[in-house]
Amino acid sequence: MTAIEGPFWRVIAVFRVASLVYATVLLLRAGGYAHPATGWLVIGFMALWTVATIFAYSDREFHGWPLLMADMLVTLGCLLATPLVQGAYRVGSLPVTGTWMGGAVLAWGVYGGRRVGAAAALIVSLADLWLHGVRGMRFETLPINGTVLLFLAGVLVGHVAKLARQAEARLQRAIEIEVAGRERERIARDIHDSVLQVLALVQRRGQEIGGEAAELGRLAGEQEAALRELVRLRPEPPAAGTADLRTLLQVYGSASVTVSVPATPLTLPAATAGEMAAAVGAALDNVTRHCGPHAPAWVFAESDGGAVIVTVRDEGPGIPEGRLEEAAATGRLGVAQSIRGRIADLGGTVTVLSAPGEGTEIEMSVPVLLASH
Predict the structure, then answer these.
(1) DSSP per residue over 14-51, as a string?
(2) GO CC annotation: what is one (predicted)?
(3) In angstroms, rounded to a whole number, what is the distance separating the alpha carbons of residues 70 and 50?
(4) C-alpha distance from residue 75 to each of 16, 126, 135, 159, 257 (Å)
(5) Average pLDDT over residues 275-303
(6) Quick one: which of 103, 203, 247, 369 has the fewest CB in 10 Å?
(7) Residue 96 and residue 131: Cα distance in Å, rounded?
(8) Which element (helix H / strand E) includes 216?
(9) Domain-by-domain residue ranges, the chain?
(10) H/E segment holding residue 119
(11) Is pTM beyond 0.85 here?
(12) How far apart (Å, rounded) are the C-alpha atoms in residues 304 and 302?
């Protein structure tokens, strides 16, 4: 039983109880019919089966065709006991079960869908029609309306239950895809950062060895000593508590990188501050890669109402239009994941302002209230 099916079984349980009460009222109003003892025996058995099905259908272990077949057999048995209770037929009277016989039809529909619900309605309807037919009824007095209602109940409830299960499955699949996507993004960021470190090491060793190794180092990412230092100094995100973002940003300061922070602390949850500092490091990595190891860059941090804003600016060649989308499509995830992905996971936004020959400005904003949770 899926979570979405629970309400259906509870509604069927309510229907069985209400129908049992209705059948009891019919028995009382008829004075017990022709055979009161047999009538109360049937009502008692219906009550016991009602209690049994309420518990059985609420337990996933009992779900299946054995229970459904038993439910149908009990329903047919009580329905076909009507002549033993009522004796001579009176036009317009209901069977001793009243509407209680619809419980099995609804159960079949919820379990198997509209076709199974229709099959259950057919079985019960044929039994009901046969019951009245063998008692000398004419066709015009047969309970056709009841048959139509049974079919409508079985088909409609079965169809709605099937749609509900499909919607639940799609929702679960969407949740799984979202979780998997977030995990892929996290892994992509970690891999991206690790690869930067490896490429920086390859470049350094290539320069030391010289010759073809130097060319290999250049092709490994055009990393130089400044980039290696930035990667080495990048702080690991603290695991718990709070942190002052200013402290994490100041380690990026160097002869070519100017870090400007306010006089008052920029207090954030430690994990949030660590991720934001890592995003700044990724932005500075891009400055080193695309503008050169000694290219000047500026980091500005401030608190603006309910948000903490950090801006990384350089005076490099700028980013041509469409270059970021092209880089993401080819698997270069520096901006897409290490910057935008990190900030998006924090509930923030990233704005990139750039034009060829006019440098690049990356503004990262994280809501303080969201970050505090």
Answers:
(1) HHHHHHHHHHHHHHHHTTT-S-HHHHHHHHHHHHHHHH
(2) membrane
(3) 12
(4) 11, 13, 20, 22, 82
(5) 87
(6) 369
(7) 12
(8) helix 212-219
(9) 3-173, 236-372
(10) helix 114-133
(11) no
(12) 6
